[in-house]
Design a protein that fits this description.
The protein contains 15 helices and 13 strands. By secondary structure, it is α/β, with parallel strands linked by helices. Bound molecules: pyridoxal-5'-phosphate (PLP).
Length: about 375
């Protein structure tokens, strides 16, 4: 980020940042958020604490958004939701819960995974292992290898799963793969820790939660980390939630009680402002409809830029090597080139991405797509 800022070239392109960008390169406040925010501020009469679990109406609405209104776990009152400071807060509290309940378990994370997963989960003292997930050079999932790895895991181990818009690969499981994974988790008695940071960024709010709902149908216990940073653009307001599902009501209550104790010991109370905004949007049908529209607009823009960049790369290279970019989902894809090529793109062409060649497609615009594609084509000495 510092190198990008210091680069005075007028053609520089930032594909490294982890936030949504519109066509003008801005990360806007959603209009529904602005309206809700005004209502929240006008109605607010105190800044006193809410609760360690945050806002009840937020937690209820989030649980319904993620599991759906009629999910068996909710009907059986086996789900408990706690507001957290962003998805990171949920991941960290979840890690501490696992550590308190079963200190010797291993948490299996995808290879590759989001860079922050390792410190967030590892700093609680849990042992981490990687399961094969994606072959960056071949641009495809390693689903069979993933299942083989998990089949060898010890009962009680935890599996961290990106629900949709996998970060950094953009490669998600299809419905049949979700079924196979859910079956394996249940058979091998593995505990899913589902990371849902991009609900609504792949297909829509319903379709993007299917993996969670399906897994939660088949396993007795699960953890779900939810973030509103991307889909409501609430990044700095630190708005998220941790849903835990217990085998029965008593287990769910015990899990929730531990979660609250952990929350108190780390940050005491979650910040309120973003959750108040989200709760207001959920409770107001007109605002919710506006949110769904704005979310669709962000999703469509990214998907159009995926199509555009893939087409330009096809033209520039004369090959379909990069067609995979079109079909992947969410903001990120791995270009699948060497760190040297990433450096050349930065030094010679002012195009910035992460060293592992993760690109944020929200940094592409109709104005820079051809430039980026030609630069990539010119830097690929070895066939990829
Ligand atoms: C995979 C993944 N999980 C969780 C998060 C949590 O984000 P936040 O703490 O901002 O809600 C992110 C954000 O980039 C992410 O990419």
């Amino acid at each position: 980020m510092a190198k990008y800022r210091a680069d005075s070239s007028p053609v520089k392109v930032d594909l490294g940042v982890g936030v949504y960008r519109d066509l003008d390169g801005n990360t806007p406040v959603l209009a529904c958020v602005r309206r809700a925010e005004q209502a929240v501020l006008a109605a607010q009469s105190t800044k006193s604490y809410v609760a360690a679990a945050g806002r009840e109406e937020f937690n209820g609405a989030v649980e319904e958004m993620v599991l759906g209104p009629a999910h068996a776990a909710r009907r059986a009152a086996r789900a408990r939701t706690t507001q957290t400071p962003g998805g990171c807060g949920a991941l960290r509290v979840g890690a501490e819960l696992i550590r308190a309940a079963a200190p010797s378990v291993t948490v299996h994370v995808s290879d590759p995974t989001w860079g922050n997963h390792v410190p967030l989960l590892g700093s609680s003292g849990l042992r981490l292992e990687r399961y094969p997930y994606y072959d960056a050079a071949a641009h495809r999932l390693r689903f069979d290898a993933m299942l083989e790895h998990l089949d060898r895991a010890t009962a009680g181990d935890v599996v961290l799963i990106h629900v949709c818009c996998h970060n950094p690969t953009g490669a998600d499981l299809d419905p049949a793969q979700w079924q196979a994974l859910a079956r394996l988790l249940a058979q091998r008695r593995l505990v899913p820790f589902l990371d849902l940071a991009y609900q609504g960024f792949a297909v829509d709010l319903q379709a993007d939660a299917q993996g969670v709902r399906l897994v939660a149908d088949q396993v007795p216990e699960a953890l779900i980390a939810i973030s509103f940073s991307k889909n409501m653009g609430l990044y700095r307001e630190r708005t998220g939630a941790l849903t835990v599902i217990g085998e029965n009501q008593a287990r769910a209550d015990a899990m929730q009680s531990h979660v609250l104790q952990i929350a108190r010991s780390i940050y005491s109370m979650p910040p309120d402002h973003g959750a108040a905004i989200a709760a207001h949007i959920f409770a107001n049908p007109a605002l919710k409809a506006q949110w769904i529209e704005e979310l669709a607009a962000m999703r469509t823009r990214i998907s159009e830029m995926r199509g555009l960049l893939a087409r330009q790369l096809h033209e520039a290279t004369g090959k379909g090597t990069f067609d995979f970019i079109r079909a992947q989902r969410g903001m990120f894809s791995l270009l699948g080139v060497s760190p040297d090529a990433v450096e050349r793109l930065r030094e010679k062409h002012h195009i910035y991405m992460l060293t592992d060649s993760r690109m944020n497609l929200a940094g592409i615009t109709p104005h820079n797509a051809a430039y980026v594609a030609n630069a990539i084509a010119s830097e690929l000495q070895e066939p990829v």
